[in-house]
Amino acid sequence: MPRHGKTSHPQPAPRPAVGMAPPPHGRIGPFVDIDFALRRQFNKTSFRPLQREIVEAALEGYDVVVQAATGFGKSLCFQLPAVIDRGGRDPFVNDGHANQVEALRAANVDARALNSDTSPAERHHIYRDLAAGHPRTRLLYVSPELCCRGRFRQHLQVVHQQRELARVVVDEAHCISEWGHDFRRDFARLGWLRQAFPDVPIMCVTATATPRVLRDILGTLALDDDSGGHNHNHNHNQGNGTWGMTFPSPQQLRRLRLFRLSPFRPNLHLAVRFVASSQDGERTRFTDLVAWIQKAPSPNRKADTADRTPVPGIVYTLSRDECECLAAALRQAGIPAHPFHSQRPRDAKEATMARWIRDDPACAVIVATTAFGMGVDKPNVRFVAHWRVPRSFESYCQEIGRAGRDGLPACCRLYYSRGDAECVANLVARSVARATTATNEHGAARRASFRTLVEYCEDTQTCRHATISRYFRHEHDPPCRGACDWHTNPQGIKMEKTEQLGNDEWSPRWLGSVDERRR
């Protein structure tokens, strides 16, 4: 009889325990109903495609790697096993997920966060809970910086010795790789988790892993050693292909389950608006943004209605000053916009987030820097706008993915000028130069990613969704069917580019080598 739902997997081969406690697998009862747990704890009636398979693989004790577009529902894939797994506790490595912690606690799941924002009293409570050996906390969200510190390691060792460590989850796993767009040194140090706890399964989730980044993730966390092995390439959705890397045969697959989903989001309409690098261009950009926000699609009103109440959305900017100024200008234009960035007072940010999450009409639009949105569960975001070109192609893909998580239509618009591209290229170069831990490979990866984004914006010959799929090495182009500006108005975007940008041929030297991004 299957242990969870309707399907089952063969038992994974045991890891060598090297003197550690036996693995925590097998705590799941034979009659656990994951559908009941889904309804009871998360108020959901069904899984999205492949979510069930991912949850079952985690509950069976496999290492699991999930690469899926932002908005797929990756959080549920590790939250549900943590709720079901009797006696197990899951540390979740990442920060910036306060919204998820609050939502879990509201659903009667004992989740806590341990990061730089954690109060001394809460930190003391968490460490005391861990030191007890049988913690009440089921999901602990911990920043990678704290995860690598000796005190946390010692407490986690106690939990493991009591057979209470069910699995380790690494979110934003692309940060492990120097070829990832957001490489962080502390993520690269997370290999200690496999060394210290070789019998504990690891789950990695990411939205932006290229084949090279995936190889680094597998290597750093020892997910491809003799006790693990690479895994089946679980393809789902239209437009899936191969990774562009070699996997062992099924007979060699023992501990790892790799799930790869297409990045195609058919409910997102992607568009680039060309803007002249001039004061007139800036005014045109703002006027267009206001009009576009006012007519953003809403499931609750007809397209031809006179109702111009803004729907929930996000406008991304590159700097804190611009974030404040743009939010103020939008409010003057009648758009209920509020700024959100790292230097805002904590109380103000929490209040803004709470109002936006509960659909307060006076706080419908968030103007934010790129830090906003990670870990935020708001399904009805109807639009995402980029006021200027982002710093990387992966960042763009992540940020547009925050729209339309409910599966209903949403719009994504990027305002592009060559002047912006020059400025952002300089920002990227200075950022790489200032980073004391950056390597030549990381610098090359960041330049290559930004080059891809510039080419994406300049291109008037290719489907937007196809470009994204090709970047992540999906062999088949997705069936866009009008979900981007190239399909809906191919001649119009060519004319706008000529009118706003002038010369159609533009390849500045700072874009770097084409070969860099193909490594």
From TrEMBL:
<dbReference type="InterPro" id="IPR032284">
    <property type="entry name" value="RecQ_Zn-bd"/>
</dbReference>
<dbReference type="GO" id="GO:0043138">
    <property type="term" value="F:3'-5' DNA helicase activity"/>
</dbReference>
<feature type="region of interest" description="Disordered">
    <location>
        <begin position="1"/>
        <end position="24"/>
    </location>
</feature>
<dbReference type="Pfam" id="PF00271">
    <property type="entry name" value="Helicase_C"/>
</dbReference>
<dbReference type="GO" id="GO:0003677">
    <property type="term" value="F:DNA binding"/>
</dbReference>
<keyword id="KW-0378">Hydrolase</keyword>
<dbReference type="GO" id="GO:0016787">
    <property type="term" value="F:hydrolase activity"/>
</dbReference>
<dbReference type="Pfam" id="PF16124">
    <property type="entry name" value="RecQ_Zn_bind"/>
</dbReference>
<feature type="compositionally biased region" description="Pro residues">
    <location>
        <begin position="11"/>
        <end position="24"/>
    </location>
</feature>
<dbReference type="InterPro" id="IPR027417">
    <property type="entry name" value="P-loop_NTPase"/>
</dbReference>
<dbReference type="InterPro" id="IPR002464">
    <property type="entry name" value="DNA/RNA_helicase_DEAH_CS"/>
</dbReference>
<dbReference type="GO" id="GO:0005524">
    <property type="term" value="F:ATP binding"/>
</dbReference>
<dbReference type="GO" id="GO:0000724">
    <property type="term" value="P:double-strand break repair via homologous recombination"/>
</dbReference>
<feature type="domain" description="Helicase C-terminal">
    <location>
        <begin position="285"/>
        <end position="445"/>
    </location>
</feature>
<dbReference type="GO" id="GO:0009378">
    <property type="term" value="F:four-way junction helicase activity"/>
</dbReference>
<dbReference type="Pfam" id="PF00270">
    <property type="entry name" value="DEAD"/>
</dbReference>
<protein>
    <recommendedName>
        <fullName>DNA 3'-5' helicase</fullName>
        <ecNumber>5.6.2.4</ecNumber>
    </recommendedName>
</protein>
<keyword id="KW-0547">Nucleotide-binding</keyword>
<keyword id="KW-0238">DNA-binding</keyword>
<feature type="region of interest" description="Disordered">
    <location>
        <begin position="497"/>
        <end position="519"/>
    </location>
</feature>
<dbReference type="GO" id="GO:0005634">
    <property type="term" value="C:nucleus"/>
</dbReference>
<dbReference type="GO" id="GO:0005737">
    <property type="term" value="C:cytoplasm"/>
</dbReference>
<keyword id="KW-0067">ATP-binding</keyword>
<comment type="similarity">
    <text>Belongs to the helicase family. RecQ subfamily.</text>
</comment>
<dbReference type="GO" id="GO:0005694">
    <property type="term" value="C:chromosome"/>
</dbReference>
<dbReference type="InterPro" id="IPR014001">
    <property type="entry name" value="Helicase_ATP-bd"/>
</dbReference>
<dbReference type="InterPro" id="IPR001650">
    <property type="entry name" value="Helicase_C-like"/>
</dbReference>
<dbReference type="InterPro" id="IPR011545">
    <property type="entry name" value="DEAD/DEAH_box_helicase_dom"/>
</dbReference>
<feature type="domain" description="Helicase ATP-binding">
    <location>
        <begin position="55"/>
        <end position="227"/>
    </location>
</feature>
<keyword id="KW-0347">Helicase</keyword>
